[in-house]
Structure formats: structure tokens, C-alpha cells
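Closing statement on the 3-isopropylmalic acid sub-project.
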Amino acid sequence: MEHYKIGIFAGDGIGPEIMVEGIKILKIIEQRNDISFELIPGAFGANAYFSHGNAFPDETKAICDKVDALIKGPIGLNHEDSKKIPIDMQPERGALLPMRRRLNTYANFRPVSLPKALGHFSPLKAEVIGEGIDLIMVRELVGGLYFGNKEVGVNAQGKRYVTEALEYDEDQIKRILIEAFKLSASRKKVLHNIHKSNVLKSSVLWNEVLDEVSPEFPDVEVKHMLVDAAATALCLDPSQFDVMVMENMFGDILSDQGGGILGSLGLMPSACIGPDKAYYEPSHGSAPDIAGQGIANPYSMIGSFAMMLEYSLGMHEEAKNVWDAMQGVFADGFSTADLSKSSADVIMLKTHEFGDKVAEKLLAQQ
Ligand code: IPM
Ligand code: MG
């Protein structure tokens, strides 16, 4: 029997309540396969700062080092509460980025996917959605502006100033492009390269490296698009995209727009993959305004578990079963509070009800 150690970092805000639903689904997978999971909880995020004095405590780092994969809930506080934590210890800068760097999870896969049957959740018109939205953004996750050199000070004129550098070397660019090409080769073989080479030198180097890598993947057609144009194209004609690759900051922004065209960031799971380690997380924030009310949509969280089954454990069929079960629940006419306004036509599910229905569907598949 295969045995896996899985780190479970529930995070802040709605994190713990959506994590419960992901674990509910994981237990079903465990029971019906020759596999066992040892779930190892770790303190991570603002809660860890308040309980351990550090948003990424040493105990949690030790868990990262010993597990086979990690699942992480959203972290962070609202704008006002964030001020209770020193800037460099806030969970984004003090926990998430250090974890990405520690695990070297340079490849972030963010599927933007909405079957035709769920098209009513999208703000886009039915004719724009056509047969559904099905693309995947590949975001570089450990370089660029997020990790570049930063300097804050007062200049000779007595003015406060800041400099933050967008830094990449060719190896960092090459490895993420290779991931995107490989993914594209396994899908529709059209790769959109998203850049800003009309302004940024970092994009000029990015595109040079792309020209060097591209001959290794002769089946994949590369299409170039400026990032600002891509933002428009995503709204007007998302079906032209299959795989999109981009640097860290562009990927942060465009992937949230991806959530927007689906109808909610609640439909955006993600996989963060490095050479030795991987972790999985919803692309959305911790939504402190609705935490504890049991109304958060656990789809991104459960979808992150599905991505772990696929990417870390090679359980492709079970991963697909989880997707089918989740989409099946919505296709049955149910909704969650992030996706629809309350009305007579909508049966709104609470967080645990959605998890229960997905579990029912999964069990019915056998
Ligand atoms: C994301 C998030 C993070 C990011 C934040 C929480 C630091 O927005 O994963 O997209 O900017 O990468
Ligand atoms: Mg983001």
C-alpha cells in the first residue's frame, strides 16, 4: 500500500472551513484506493503569527521538509487587521513567499475552466463562452518583482523613494517555458506567450529564451501577446487560449481575471510545482469578511486536492472524478453564495453542504 505524508496548512479566514471539505473528499479517495494518507497539520499565516510569533514557524518549515505534498489554505487579514503585524512578518511576505522560495515551486498551474453547463456563472455572454472555457495559465512563481532586489529610503532631495527590481536569469526563464511547452504539447499545441517586450527588458530576454527553447517543441505553435492585450482578449474571446505562460506578476493579475471570467475566484484552484516539492492552494484570498459563516465556496480548495492527486500522486482518474463530481453538483442546479444572488431559482449550498454533495457524487461513481 502506498503511504503519503501530506502537510495541511489551513491558513486564515475561510481557510479552515474550506479545508475540512477538501479533507472530506480526500478520505473517500483514500478509502477506495490502495493508499493511505498521513495528514500533518501546520500553523501558517496570520494565525501562526499570533500563536507562534511567526507566520511561518520553524515547526511548519520542518513539516514542509518531510512531507510528500502540501495543501495550503488562503492566508492574510483584511487591510486594517494587517496593520497589527509588522510589514515584513505579514503572512504574504512572512510566510507564503518564503515557502515558495524554500520549496522552489517555480511552476504555478492555474486552470481557468468552466464547462458549458456552468456557463450561467460567468459574467460573459453565452455566445462568448461557446462550448465552455478551458485554458490553463502557467505562472512563473519564484522570480520577477516578487523576489527582486528592494530598496526603500530617502533620496538626496529628502523624498522617500522605493526601487523594486524585476529580476530573471535565463535559467529561470527557460525552466518555466519548458513546463509550459510540455503542457501545451499534451493539450492543443497552441502556446500563448504573454509579455510586455515593447517596454520591459525582462520581456525581451524572456522572448529570446523562448526562441531558443521553441525548436525543441516543433509541434507547439507559439503566439505572442502583450499582457495588456491579453487582459482584453480574455474577456472578449477566451476560447482562443489553451496554455498561457507568463512571469510572476503578470500571472498574479491575469489569473485573478481568469477567476473573474468564470464568475468567481472560488473556482480557481492551483498547483505550485518545484523540482522536489509541490504544494497546492486556492488562488483566492482568505475572505475574512465571510469567515466563519459557513458560506464560502470550497471548490478551489477541493480542486487543489484534485490537482495534488494528479500532479503529485499520478492519480489521474481519481482527479478527474473529483472534478466531475464538483461540476456535477453545480450542473444539478445548485450554487454557492459567491456565484449567484439568492433567488427562487437558485438552491444555495453552504460550505459543508457542497462538500457533502460532492462526496455523494463521488461515491455514486462506483
Ligand atoms: C496568489 C496570491 C498571492 C500572490 C498573495 C497572497 C501573496 O494573490 O497566489 O495569487 O500574489 O502570489
Ligand atoms: Mg493573486
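The mean pLDDT is 97. With this model delivered, the sub-project is considered complete and its resources will be redirected to Aim 3.
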